[in-house]
Design goal:
CATH class of the domain at 1-174: Alpha Beta
Shape: globular
CATH superfamily of the domain at 1-174: Oligo-1,6-glucosidase, Domain 2
Oligomer: single chain
Structural class: alpha/beta
Length: 440
């Protein structure tokens, strides 16, 4: 479930909770979460990098300063750069949005501090290495455990550790933190999914250390395969992609580009797609979506995630139902557990009215459906076909077995799952953008 904490309608749609241990009362209580967990496996977000400036912890620090019990909870520029920072050190910091990650805030006594704010000015980064930072995170984990939550989605993990002189993203110490926090979760019977948009080799390494990762490279590669009518780049990824992954085509965020791009040193860390192909991919999405994605991407619409294209996946394919179902069946036959975002499930289109109202780029793919609209979409032919594919993927025993792929040329791809005497095979003709499923 997407963040259900107080409040669900903050500046970052629930990813900036004021109180991470309080269910938004408009939705229910922890008892309701526990009741859900008795019937289904519940995964909840645990936002490890930051806390809202409206949180009780920061409000206490704002009023008491260094006398607050939470004085060491918040990361400031001086706590990372106690001797000050040079221009070169500041420019080295990685941030997926424009500007430096600092915000000036004035405390009750009139003094000002430069807080580390990776995302927005009111999302204050926490010092997860301090005692209060460790207590803050373990406290949330214990609340989750009592509510029967089976797994956590560690959000914004790549930015959790900062060191002077580095890019402050995915450091060796970050991997150590993932290890230690995963151990805490496992001790409570909770599995760990790490959410990171980064160079694909980082994802492969992280997958060795945790229960689950996202396959964020899959969405742009499937789009590229359909646009270029070739399986060349997709096959390369499917051969090496982590098997302990959740596959996605769309999420509450945009369609990632960094996940198929080069690493910090392009000369030695080439991407799954080269820069020319990435430019083609982005421009083709803008073209297929009739320019709507361009209104919500990059510097447009107060968009802060410059490494993502904001657009529904259906619109990214020009609302072509055949191409959309092909993309979904490729997702369902790829290794991993498929996750289908609610807008994608209902075949939603770009919500230009919501985008205009909020001027937040990602809102183009965050449509609010009424009950009537949900029922109407569920009865459409495309959604009915998608639901049929989902049921097939969820129930066929072959997907509990082994995976194999074959490509006789760049235009044809065969994905096969086998388990004991059962099999499920997907044959794709990219030239015609057609697919066939064979199964026992």
């Amino acid at each position: 479930m997407l963040p259900f904490f107080h409040p669900i309608d903050g500046a970052d749609a629930g990813f900036d909770p004021i109180d991470h241990t309080l269910v938004d009362p408009r939705l229910g209580t922890w008892e309701d979460v526990k009741a859900l967990s008795e019937d289904i496996d519940v995964m909840a977000d645990l936002i490890v990098n930051h806390v809202s400036a409206l949180s009780p912890q920061y409000q206490d620090y704002h009023s008491k300063g260094e006398a607050s019990d939470y004085a060491s909870l918040f990361l400031t520029m001086s706590s990372v750069f106690p001797k000050g920072a040079s221009e070169a050190e500041l420019l080295k910091i990685y941030r997926p949005r424009p500007g430096l990650p600092f915000t000036v805030k004035t405390l009750a006594d009139g003094s000002s501090q430069l807080f580390w704010t990776t995302f927005t000015p009111n999302q204050l980064d926490i010092n997860i290495e301090s005692e209060s930072g460790k207590q803050y995170l373990s406290g949330i984990l214990n609340v989750f455990s009592k509510a029967g939550i089976k797994s956590i989605r560690m959000d914004a993990t790549g930015y959790a550790i900062k060191r002077a002189g580095t890019n402050c993203f995915m450091l060796p110490e970050t991997y150590d933190f993932i290890d230690s926090f995963s151990e805490q979760a496992h001790a409570l019977g909770i599995e760990v999914l790490v959410e990171i948009h980064s160079y694909y080799m980082d994802q492969i390494e992280i997958a060795k250390k945790v229960d689950w990762v996202y396959d964020f490279a899959l969405p742009p590669l499937i789009l590229h395969a359909i646009f270029r009518k070739t399986s060349k780049y997709l096959v390369k990824w499917l051969e090496i992609a982590p098997r302990n992954c959740l596959t996605v085509l769309d999420t509450h965020d945009g369609i990632g580009v960094i996940d198929v791009g080069s690493g910090t040193d392009p000369s030695t860390q080439s991407g799954l797609l080269d820069p020319i192909e990435i430019d083609f991919l982005v421009e083709e999405i803008h073209k297929k979506s009739r320019g709507e994605s361009k209104l919500a991407t990059g510097a447009a619409a107060s968009n802060l995630d410059l490494y993502q294209v904001n657009c529904t996946f259906f619109d990214a394919l020009g609302k072509n139902e055949q191409s959309y179902l092909l993309a979904r069946v490729l997702q369902f036959f790829s290794p991993g557990i498929p996750q289908v975002y609610y807008v994608g499930l209902l075949g939603g289109s770009n919500d230009l009215e919501l985008l205009a109202r909020t001027n937040v780029g990602r809102d183009i793919n965050r449509q609010y459906f009424s009950k009537e609209e949900v029922n109407q979409q569920l009865h459409s032919q495309m959604v009915q076909s998608l639901v049929e594919l989902i049921r097939f993927r969820n129930t066929h025993k072959a997907f509990n077995g082994s995976f194999a792929l074959a490509a006789k040329d760049e235009n044809h791809l065969t994905l096969t799952w086998t388990h004991e005497n059962e099999f499920a095979t997907l044959e794709v003709d990219f030239d015609q953008l057609m697919y066939h499923i064979h199964s026992s």
